[in-house]
Amino acid sequence: MRKECSDHLGNKFKSKLERARFYKKPHSAINYRLNSGYTLEEALTIKAGKLSKNECKDHLGNVYESYTARAAAYGLTRARVAWRLRSGMSIKDALTLGFRYNIVKECADHLGNKYHSYEARARAYGISNAVIRYRLKAGWSLEKALLTQPVHKKRKAK
Fold first, then answer.
1. Can you tell me the mean pLDDT for 98-119?
2. Does the residue 152 lie in any domain?
3. Which residue range forms the structural domain that includes residue 54?
4. For residues 113 and 143, what is the distance between their CA atoms, to the nearest angstrom?
């Protein structure tokens, strides 16, 4: 079943395909532009070739020279952003949600200091986040997990 849709002027269409035909643009090109951060008006009205092939925008309208540059500006890889867009995330969510867990998780240490992510807290204490998670799962207190430095065992030479 096709979903009704509209354009930036409020005109109603029976489907996205009908809207694309009305604007004489390939449906795939309109979707590509929308997923690249263009507004609906830009996706429907910009003529082909007006923008460089790799140029793209974020949800705030900032223009980047490439998809890689856009992803890097948000601390992500191009592949991660592309995967998120393919999985149905909006451009805003694909760029702004945290790297590892797909959400930004604020956290605090045992003293009440706030960090924007678990990884940031781990870096502040000079320990990997994996070690802290392992320790907490093993029943350690947060204070002990953060303050105990890992013991690095030397490997025996063969």
1. 72
2. no
3. 5-96
4. 12
